[in-house]
Amino acid sequence: MEIDKAIRDSDDRRLKAKYNTAIYVIQRALALYSIEEVAFSFNGGKDSTVLLHLLRAGHFLHQVEHGHSNGDLSDHQFTFPIRTIYFESTSAFPEINSFTYETAASYGVQLDILRQDFKSGLEALLKAKPIRAIFLGVRIGDPTAVGQEQFSPSSSGWPPFMRVNPILDWSYRDVWAFLLTCKVQYCGLYDQGYTSIGSINDTVPNALLCIKDSAADKQKFRPAYMLSDGRLERAGRARKVSPIAGRVPAVSNGLKCTEPHQSSVLTASIVAVGDEILFGIIEDQLGPSLCRKLHSIGWVVSQIAIVRSDVDSVAEEVEKRKSTSDMVFIYGGVGPLHSDVTAGGVAKAFGVRLAPDEEYEEYLSQLFGDKYTGDRNEMARLPEGITELLQHEKLPVPLIMCHNVIILSATNVDELDVQWDALIDSRSTALTSLGPFLSKHLTTSLTDLEVAQPLSKISFEFPDIYIGCYRKSRTGPLTITFEGKDEEKVEAAMEALSVKLSSVVK
Q: Which superkingdom, per the lineage (predicted)?
């Protein structure tokens, strides 16, 4: 079998280990279930293409092991016997459909073509056929991989079958190492810069692979296998605007934008993890600095919370904030110490477990070298299936993003400055600049009682301008601040209040 030979002849020890594990899972499944009881879900993507060839090799080796073949059959003498399901969709790329049918013809794959949605199609198929297990090309990092093992029963509400995931622990790098080492055909879209292919409605070439052709004044893209950070493979999936991101905060006088072009106010929450802050041993400097940075790009910070170094405390706070803020920043509690519970808390907030991340472990190993011993596996355990590594040339180790939660590893303001710059440069976060807020200040020696009524009227007249007050001392002057994104309105609010306060003095 050419696949097995290509891997055995390879010098890639990691690929060999991944291959051996996948083949073991496949052979185990074939020992547990008859060939009539298993099926393979093929969608034409890179992961299922890898699985197709692993199944070809795995079944062939299984036959050899049980004396049904002498091992001398070539590719095209070997018929692929596993029932293969293909869900044909009107929203699929034509290239995916073409590749699927051409591949099936090349390797003797008999396709069961279903034109229903995935769940309905499976229900119909399992009623008609004695299928008990389905091979899936799911990998850690896929949205559907959360909580799955190599053998996992189907979820509640789905028809009963065993999900068999031979490449669950494979990385993006492993997938491409296999395809290129075995020299098998894959969908041509991957050579055009597509790194993760969904439907025609939500998939574009990955901008990280873009090459600007100045001569032709058009964009070209490098092949998918040239993406250096596999955690960014889904950067080519079009992001849908969440309801939260488009909403306007329902607070009076809190930057309620009424102009259509100003309606995108984004909010952030900040969570600091550390008993030392709560005990008063140290003073938190990162929170105020992060507030200023967010303010400078037009974001509103809706909450700063300090929580104990406790998994449940972190999880409770993150769970609250991730659904009410467009972005949550959390810092403290990152590292190998017993009190470093932030990753575990974030995982619990999303209802997932911590799992080893090989790519992150490689970064840590390069950073710490021989010192990276002991609890190294614990440091590289990240929230399973929801983690994206934010790599940047300024960062020795990537930052961790779990959906809309960013875990900062900074321990001081200088480190925060570097990580912030990297976040702003990154194309994989939604941390876009909305334009800075404009600030004006008015100082008066009037008492709070004298200022209260005029200030309330101005706040009502200018609901899209934030107006706040503070005194540095009880007997000092009152400073009134005006914040907004429309300079004319900020000026108008301040002038209107000046007039009202002048009348109070008279």
A: Eukaryota
> To 10 degrees, what angle do helices 342-350 and 311-322 make?
50
* 381-396 residues labelled b (16+ CB within 10 A) or e (exposed): bbbbbbbbbbbbeebe
Please write the tens of the pLDDT for every residue from 357-387.
878 888 887 777 665 554 445 677 888 888 8
Do 328 and 268 touch, CB atoms closer than 8 A?
yes
**CB neighbour class for 110 (10 Å; exposed up to 12, middle 13-18, buried from 19):** exposed
Which pLDDT value is given to residue 259? 36
pLDDT tens, residue by residue, 414-459: 999 999 998 888 755 667 777 778 888 889 988 888 888 888 888 8
Q: To which residue do tokens 């185990």 refer?
A: 28
Q: DSSP labels for 229-252? A: -GGGGGGGBPPPPPHHHH-----T
Helix (H) or strand (E) holding 124: helix 118-128
Looking at per-residue confidence, does 466 or 191 come out higher? 191
DSSP-derived 3-state class of residue 87: strand
The helix/strand count (H/E) of the chain reads as 16, 19
* Residue 284 near residue 296 (C-beta atoms within 8 A): no
Sequential DSSP letters for 435-482: -PPEEEEEEE-S-HHHHHHHHHHHHHH-TTSEEEEE-SSTTSPEEEEE
Comparing CA positions, the residue from 267, 390, 373, 401 lying closest to residue 324 is 267
First vs last C-alpha separation in the chain: 97
Tokens of 490: 């900020």
Per the CB < 8 A criterion, the answer to whether 435 and 445 are in contact is: no
What CA–CA distance (Å, rounded) separates 397 from 380?
11
- Residue 486's CB is within 10 A of a number of other CB atoms, namely 17
The per-residue pLDDT for 119 is 81
- The answer to whether the CB of 91 falls within 8 A of the CB of 68 is no
User: How confident is the model over 197-224, as pLDDT tens digits?
Assistant: 988 888 889 888 888 765 656 778 999 9
In this prediction, what percent of the chain has a pLDDT beyond 70? 87
Closest by CA to 151, choosing from 29, 34, 33, 18, is 29
Write out the two tokens for 261: 């072009």
Identify the three-state secondary structure at position 114: strand
Give residue 437's pLDDT. Answer: 82
